[in-house]
Design brief:
The protein is an alpha+beta fold. It is 61% helix and 13% strand. The protein has seven helices and three strands; from the N terminus they run ααααααβββα. Strands 1-2-3 form a three-stranded antiparallel sheet. α2 runs parallel beside α6. The longest helix has 30 residues. The two termini are 27 Å apart.
């Protein structure tokens, strides 16, 4: 019943059971409202009057409604801390007890929020970095030094720059090799996530 990103306590399990009983056509607007209010960081998601209307609409008492709301708030906050493949998120939601329809609504809301956030990040990072990026490098070999006589010490100098900033790095052979291994690990992870 548990997954890595969500701790399913008894209260969460009870909340999932309550949410599964809610009518599908009314669940999606309910979910969207909670997501919207959380995105705006408003303290009160529903007014007392709205809560009473929701109790009538969903045919539940106040405590049951509050458990449903708190479960969705908890789930929403946990979802925004992780990056998922939508298919894997859907499977995880079903594994913790959500019905297929409810899981699809949650994935749909999560996808729309994450895509807008990612688009904002891309626009902001492009504005900061700019289009005029350059990468240059050179290799120097120090033949000897005061510390070690007659030793060769290769060093790589990397420079990454754009219109606004410039970053220079001096790397030894082991530093450069470590960076290469990290880039290779990132590439392998990207390749495996695409496939």
């Amino acid at each position: 019943m548990n997954c890595k990103w969500l701790k399913v306590t008894q209260n969460v399990q009870k909340g999932i059971q309550i949410l599964n009983k809610l009518e599908d056509s009314k669940f999606e607007p309910f979910l969207k409202r909670i997501g919207t209010k959380l995105k705006l960081q408003e303290i009160e998601i529903f007014t007392e009057e709205e809560k009473k209307k929701l109790q009538v609409i969903f045919k539940v008492d106040e405590d049951t409604l509050m458990i449903a709301i708190k479960t969705l708030i908890y789930l929403h906050k946990r979802l925004l801390k992780f990056i998922f493949m939508p298919v894997n998120l859907h499977k995880d939601l079903i594994n913790v007890g959500f019905e297929t329809e409810k899981a699809e609504y949650i994935v749909k809301l999560w996808s729309s929020e994450v895509s807008s956030t990612l688009n904002d990040l891309v626009c902001n990072s492009l504005d900061k970095v700019g289009d005029n990026q350059t990468f240059s490098w050179k290799l120097n070999t120090e033949l000897s030094s005061d510390i070690q006589k007659k030793s060769k010490m290769p060093k790589a100098y990397l420079s990454i720059s754009n219109d606004k900033t410039e970053q220079d790095m001096e790397l030894t052979h082991s530093d450069l090799y470590t960076m290469f291994i990290q880039f290779e690990a990132i590439q392998n992870e990207l390749d495996s996530s695409v496939l």
